[in-house]
Amino acid sequence: MNEAEAALHPSARAAVAFRPGVAFAVLTALGSSIAISWGLATDVWTSGAFGDTDDAMRMVQVRDLIAGQNWYDMAQHRLAPPAGSFMHWSRVVDVPLVILMKTFGLVLAPAQAEAATRLAFPLLMLAGLYLAVAHVARLFGDRAVQMTAVGLAFASGPFLSQFIPGRIDHHAPQIVLLTLASGGVLAALDSARAKALWISAACMALSLAISLENLPFFVVLLAVPVIAWIMRGADMAPALRALALGLIVALPVCFLATIGPQRWSNTACDAYSAAHLVAGLAGALALLALVALSARLETIFSRLASAGAFGLLPLGALKLVAPACLGDPFVGLDPLVRALWLSHVAEVQTLTDLAANQPSGALTLGAPLALALLATSIAAWFENGVQRARLAALAALIAVGFAMTFWGVRVFSSVAPLAAIGAAVAVITLARRAIAAGPLRPILAFGLCLPFAPVAYAAVLPADAKGETSRTSACLKPSALRPLDTAPAGLVLAPIDAGAHLLAFTHHSVVAAPYHRNNAGNRLSIDTFLASPDEARRIAVSSGADYLVACPLMKRMEILAKRAPQGLAAELIAGRAPGWLEPLDIQAQPNTIYRIRR
Question: Using CA atoms, how far apart are residues 189 and 393, in angstroms rounded to an integer?
């Protein structure tokens, strides 16, 4: 059987392994990613700069773990002391970071070991991502599909921001886990490969233990085998059984490994908790019930009715245990904090808002996803059997990801690899139908790839203004904050965005940082900068803060000044510091550092 025949034969597709061409594509994509981010890697190595607040806070968390903080103690004790602020993260991502730091620490000084870790971790995650994309793509064809999928994943430039040097937050592992979980579900649509759902269950449980950002995709992935069971009956029963048993094992293991006994009864909605464990186990029991009834349910209608009835079990369990989790996870966020902080966070910006402010950026993200959804759906229409089911499921995942960008554009990063796979299938199928084998076919395939490649849009569309981002980043550079480390340890009052970087670059504690659970501290920071200078003094003194840090260039300061033109933020931007703020002789431009006089 030749390569073209293998591409059209479902049984042969599953047997395609990694070939030299695929390995070359992965290495080329990885090498190209390193090359285009070399300057950023150099900056991380030489200055230790953090490009994102979550990366800074993650490193603070890892340092605390290495210093002896309890595994289950997720509080950041230097944020809003003395009680501290309990983070909605887990230790899962801390583990590889600690291992890397300890390993590099055998031959490097601590600061260099930390920098090396911040370079190695995203690179390893990116290598894992390219391999995962190639692995899932082989379900749909030969090495041409795999290589094209890897190439399109590389060409999804914006999502690669989660894998750039210095990026140690949880988003990169989550993208890899989602890709692998999707691959297991798609593979198991072939009833002979039901055991692949063990891998999917493990990936889903581990992902939930990290954060809940993949949960909407997991709802689709859990529905796919059920829909296949409705259509095909007992043939899919082993797949449902494998998925159910996998969840019954993996969900509690991840729960016990990441949540301490004192919090077992906690039903937090913004992080993996007892609420999600109970709902997940209820869903697994529902799957087992469907398996047990398979022999008696002989018609599609009877299976559909049973699936609908038992599908209510996890929802009922969640409503019984934690009804609030069926609504907004940020429902407890202070309205003023939401309005002046969360609503201005870039990663929660909707695609619609992005289109209004940065039309080129919105088109670069939205158009390739929409086209990938269309192309994958068309490819599914022209397929049959298992391959049609797989492409339909892949299209459903892309559709959910595209829809969620209208809730938050950061979801693009999660769905981009799946869109790359769907687009690759469509491109190679069309190229093979259009042109016989020969040198023109790869040229046609390359041309067909361009509409699905965000970097192609970025290359031809006019650049959106980015001045506000660069001005804020100037306030968060190591050179702008590390000088404060020379002052005696104290509590720092600063705009919310500066909190994580202050914790990473200094030995001080902070009142506020960009984390929704720190509701009181963030509200206090906002109140201080909105208040008149005299009222701000009262708030600052009562908070126990020793220092105040302000940067006139910071976007958050501008937002606060616009809200209160006579407030402290506006006065500081205008260079009119009140007498109760004593400037320290610390060179930290563009920041100004003050001692608060009591």
Answer: 10
